[in-house]
Amino acid sequence: MIYVNLDSPDATIIAAFTKWLEAKRKMFPSSISKRGPKSAAKSKITSDTMRAWTDSRMVPIATLKLLAKHHEERFSNRQLMEWVFPDIHQTADPGVVIKTSMDKLKRAKALIPAIEAQVLFDLQPDRGVDPM
């Protein structure tokens, strides 16, 4: 939470906020430098990207991992393979398949700010996009 003393001069408030923001950006770097369509376009989410996410079954794996964490359990890669990849679990290396899916999930999570920026940009009243 940020508290601002509105009795302070603007220059003091801006300088303090700038210092705070610089410190936070060092701790938590932004994955996008600029909001709007250009930054979102860099995300390159295409139908091929969506197909790769579906093929890697990263959403069910992430869901199972969250469920395990919530219940303080741990699922082995072999268990995840049997549940999420029943069609290939006997012929593929579970470590490789699950790691590939988790790597894709990490890359997908990194795109969330860019996707959010694009949605917010598109929903601006002057853009003429009806949110509903």
SSE map:
Layout: H1 10-27, H2 37-41, H3 47-56, H4 58-70, H5 77-84, H6 94-110, H7 112-122
Helix pairs in contact: 4-6, 5-6
Q: In words, what does this structure look like?
A:
By secondary structure, the protein is an all-alpha fold. The chain has a domain at 36-126. Helices cover 62% and strands 0% of the residues. The protein starts with 9 loop residues before the first helix and ends in a 10-residue tail after the last helix. The model has no long low-confidence stretch (mean pLDDT 76).
Task: Give a concise summary.
With 132 residues, the protein is an all-alpha fold.
Keywords:
elongated; 132 residues; single chain; mainly alpha; 7 helices
Largest sheet: none
Mean pLDDT rating: 76
Helix-residue proportion = 55-70%
Uncertain segments of ≥5 residues (pLDDT<50)? none
Classification by helices and strands: mainly alpha
Beta strands, count: 0
Radius of gyration: 21 Å
What shape does the CA trace take? Answer: elongated
- Termini separation: 32 Å
Contiguous helical run count: 7
Order of helices and strands: HHHHHHH
Beta strand %: under 5%
